[in-house]
Write a structure and sequence with these properties.
Elements lengths: L11 H5 L12 H10 L8 H9 L4 H22 L5 H7 L3 H6 L1 H12 L6 H13 L5
Amino acid sequence: MLSDSVDKDRSIEELEGDRWPDPPRDGTSLIRSVHALRRRAIKELSVEDLRRLIGQDVGLRWLLPVALDFLRETAPQEAETGWYDDDLLSAVLTRKESVWRDAPQLARHLDETVRLLVDLSPYIQQEVEHYRASLSDVL
């Protein structure tokens, strides 16, 4: 599994060695949530937590392998339902091209996982096509 090298007992904050200050009192719920989630052990993060952090480009070095493992594990069941419309998949697919170029093995793993899925929603299919077009030389 891709995430075997990730110490899931530790938080992003611990793994990065960077403690963020408390969020501003008038910070949005998203800001407060991201700050709190960075302090939670990775193994305690829900799929929604992963989506939120990845969508904000927080802790990608550790969270992308965890998310990719989850997506690969659930792909067969999702393919059976005949419709795949997933916010985590969307968050992963829409990371900057440079993220995937810096980790081509993760990029290829994601592409292989997406190929297991059928009947993607139109917006996810569009994200897949953009992902593949921008990384065609890596995949």
